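Follow-up to my post from last week.
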Amino acid sequence: MKKLATKRYHKAAPLMLVLLLLAAITGVAAITTSAPATAATQVTGNDVVEGQKLFAANCATCHGMKAQGQEDIAPSLVGVGAASVDFQVGSGRMPMQMSGTQARAKMPQFAQPQIDLLAAYVASLGAGPMVPTAEQVDGSLGNAANGMELFRTNCAMCHGSVGGGGALTQGKYAPSLGKTTPTHIYEAMLTGPQSMPVFNQDNISSKGKRDIISYLEEQRKPSPGGLKLGAIGPVAEGFWAWVVGIGLIIASTVWVGARSS
Amino acid sequence: MSQSDQRQGKAEPESFEDPGLPYHRPRLADKDPKAAKRAERQVAAMFGISILGTIIALWAYFGLDQSATDTASIMQMNTAIGIGVMLGLFGIGFGAIHWAKTLMRDHDMVEERHELRSSDEARAGAIQNLKDGVEDSGIGATPEGVGRRGLLKGSLITAVLLAPLALLVPQIGNMGGNWDVNALRHTMWKKGTRLARDPEGTLIKASDVTIGSAFHVIPEGLNELEHGKLEEKAKAIVLMVRLDPRDLNLQPGREDWSFDGIIAFSKVCTHVGCPVALYEQQTHHLLCPCHQSTFDVANGAKVIFGPARRPLPQLPIAVDDEGYIIAQSDFDEPVGPSYWDRLKTPGSSPSAEAVGN
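User reply:
Got it. Predicted complex:
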């Protein structure tokens, strides 16, 4: 990837310079107009430059050289913020494997330092939500009981009562939250990726989000009742009852009725 | 041979012949003492498994730490006790059946079916008993054709008819304390009620609702209700979202019911009343998890899929002087599924019905 990026840099050097200038201007404007929103991430000008190189090499095909997006292909990334980049690239959803109803989570294609560079570049394009701090996503500091109440009201209808995931319309789905990192859970609420609505800080406070993370981490402990069967509710349980349970009963009945050899 | 002869012959047989018992094949254990010994050991092993299972269950109950509160320990104990009980019962059952099948006396038995019809004497006796009973009670007609003991007959019939009321009246009376369907026509929302977050009850400013946001909303003051909180909540729950105003098609007659892309709909499905809350931010579709009714939020929540027949009622909203979102009025039609007298509601606006088609 780095190698590729270096090559591209030489080819597109003039354009890069123009973009760099634009990015610097918008970056300065963003920082001066909304200082509290972006101040916490320690972004140096160099990070933005490096991030822009990565962006041009890996993301610009769809999102455009200025991250302005393309009609019906990819959305504009101006103002989506570092949190969006960290979630989408960090969970492997971006770069997308193929176009379809929903970008699937897969192995991340970039290492965390590269993701941080991309995030720094995108954040410089316009003010947006930033990556949460370690303390904001530390579930052990949260209140799982309050998190359950918030989760039941805001999240459970799509993600299931314990975060096992569920189906939406026309092939879309709410993914399981069983293995999602706390930072990605937080960022998803903040940015509302794909079908998911946005739950900004005015809707669910930062403390509330941490409570939700705490509740979800509680659900990862072993279930006292035994097998969870994916925690997706009656479908998996019914499948077990009908196929395994009734299958065993039929097998026993056949054995009881068969003559001994 | 004889069967095929008959089939080719001209006459059908009068009745089927009893084919008798099939050939009795001796079992391995009948012929070979070694096999019998093996079967005996197998049965004993199954009973042994049962004994082992019981020991496991008892060990799990007494041996494992019962005071543990972490889910991992509880799961281990439950699993161990469950497996122990399962082995204890299955071992006995499988052993007993294996014993019966391999070692117990193997002989064919014939159990004849008896005729269902009772004998003529028994039938005549039963009829005579009924006649005697009618005669003794005196409720039947006398040989002269005049009924006797009319008082007894009448009072008995009255008592039998009245007795179920003692059960039915309290049952039906308890079904709903209030049979007035007007309670379904109105919710807690009224002019000026502020919108609050579910479950905390904190108020919402219009500036809090960014594009793409979904807020689950209750009326201000709901949490402070002392009686009927859940009943009121069940009717008043609202989903509020903000769309890019360019995506939002305002419905005729409802141009001022939303605020700069912020729009609020009842969360109670018009099909059978499940909470409709699966909101897809990009398509603006709202999906009901029970029967997949799908409502298009960008077009007045009209039904685009599923069994629901009416759009979700819209809550008219506005913003007050302090920037908080308030309701302009109650819903203009009853929320939730249909019920008798629903269409007689005076407040039902014709425009709300027109959106549904």
